[in-house]
Amino acid sequence: MENNDSEQKAALGIVWAIVGVVVVSVLLLAGYFGLTSGKGGSKPATTVSAPQNANVPAVANVAAGTEQAAAGVPAAVKIFFETGKSEVPASAATDVAPIAMYLKANSAATVAVSGYHDASGNADVNAEVSKERAKAVRAVLVAAGVEESRVVLDKPQVSLGGNDADARRVEVTVHQ
């Protein structure tokens, strides 16, 4: 009977491994097609606790991007941050992957990174946090293989209307 228990445990381990692979695959595909790029609810994404400018998430060897170039310019990506924080969310590398692939396939294109904040509180502090968030997203793009000279940081902007999460976002937009 003990032998049967160990076989069941092994089978269960294999099933969980397969489930894990399927979940990761679905998340990667969702990020590739822009389904996790900040659309939907106002809840901010879980963030990585790594310090600024330290090991930012890297995108694993993004292909030449010929399919993306044929499909056109990728939509703008919105990356949401926690209140008062500038650490990039764990999903940021996946969210910007289509843009990185497009830039690799289109050498004339550039990308604008715009940080937003709301009008409440100290305007200077808000602008500085917004600027640090934009720098953190630029670091993710550079880690994905985009030349830093092709990433333009826009002046921090005040988010008008919307919800609290909209005021804590960075938008990444491709320019031809």
TrEMBL record:
<keyword id="KW-1133">Transmembrane helix</keyword>
<feature type="domain" description="OmpA-like">
    <location>
        <begin position="68"/>
        <end position="176"/>
    </location>
</feature>
<keyword id="KW-0998">Cell outer membrane</keyword>
<keyword id="KW-0812">Transmembrane</keyword>
<dbReference type="Pfam" id="PF00691">
    <property type="entry name" value="OmpA"/>
</dbReference>
<protein>
    <submittedName>
        <fullName>OmpA family protein</fullName>
    </submittedName>
</protein>
<dbReference type="InterPro" id="IPR036737">
    <property type="entry name" value="OmpA-like_sf"/>
</dbReference>
<keyword id="KW-0472">Membrane</keyword>
<dbReference type="InterPro" id="IPR006664">
    <property type="entry name" value="OMP_bac"/>
</dbReference>
<dbReference type="InterPro" id="IPR006665">
    <property type="entry name" value="OmpA-like"/>
</dbReference>
<feature type="transmembrane region" description="Helical">
    <location>
        <begin position="12"/>
        <end position="35"/>
    </location>
</feature>
<dbReference type="InterPro" id="IPR050330">
    <property type="entry name" value="Bact_OuterMem_StrucFunc"/>
</dbReference>
